[in-house]
Amino acid sequence: MRAVPLRCYSTGLGVGLGVGLGNGHGHGHGHGHGNGLTAGLGAGLGAGLGAGVAVIVATASPGAALAAKSATAMIPIVFQVGVDPVEIGLVASISRPSGNLTGTSFLIKELVAKRLELLHQIVPTVTTIGFLVNPTMPGIETQIREAEVAARTLGVSLVVLNATTASEIEAAFAALVSQGIGALMSGSDALLFEHSAQVVALAARHAVPAIYSYGVIVDAGGLISYGSLLADAFRVVGVYAGRILKGEKPADLPVQQSTRFELVINLKTAIALGIAVPPALLARADKVIE
């Protein structure tokens, strides 16, 4: 699932640098670009800060971006996060980030209610829905509140299921089954994205209809997704990294927010689950996997 984001990052980087990097050149985290280096951050801060690093790219999670911010106030940082960067203290404002950080933000909190509504449309008889989250993710409390409000509006019960490891994801599904929870909304956290294959497999094993944040998860067998286009966000990260390497300052580059969203439905998965997807929902889908 990493291939598309990395390819889009590489393409964006070429745009930012003003050079013709194609999709197959392998440019990305940790490689030399122009007059500097881009250092990649995974779950935590990479080693070697200050050793010729010109830009830090923090895309793994909000925690990676926060770790980078705490590590340096000098090296420019370009982030991609699925939370409000102002709310978690990454930047002072969207339009004027200030300091040494800028990047792109998905509208995840704002889409929680819509995701729950779509799941309810596809399984309208379900009365209890699980919300699988990583409780350590910055800003998750806000997402949970949004989900609880949406659940009350739809007249369904919401059960929050916490998981921070693969074994805890297994335990969350065991709890889901034992409590008779009829459907699942998977959170947008980087950890859950990394373990999305496991979540999809468990949902299939236990015949649980589930909605996800990213279309690539539905491509891999998930039932339905609604969310921002990953490709757009990673391309912006690449463009900003390139522009900074050419001399622009992060404080002068406003944080970009998602403007394009996609609804993806996997009919093969729906059939396996015995679900008849409403024709009106299929007509609205940006992509239907048959």
Descriptive account of the structure:
Helix 3 (112-122) crosses helix 4. The chain is α/β, with parallel strands linked by helices. It folds into 2 domains: 3-108 and 229-261, Rossmann fold; 109-228 and 262-289, Response regulator (Rossmann fold, 3-Layer(aba) Sandwich). It is built from 11 helices and 13 strands. It has helices at 3-17, 62-71, 112-122, 140-154, 166-178, 190-194, 196-205, 215-219, 230-245, 267-272, 279-284, and strands at 32-33, 36-41, 55-58, 77-81, 101-105, 128-133, 157-162, 183-186, 210-212, 224-228, 256-257, 261-266, 287-289. The protein has a 7-stranded mixed β-sheet, sandwiched between helices.
How would you describe this structure in keywords?
290 residues; Rossmann fold; alpha/beta; 20% strand; elongated; six-stranded mixed sheet
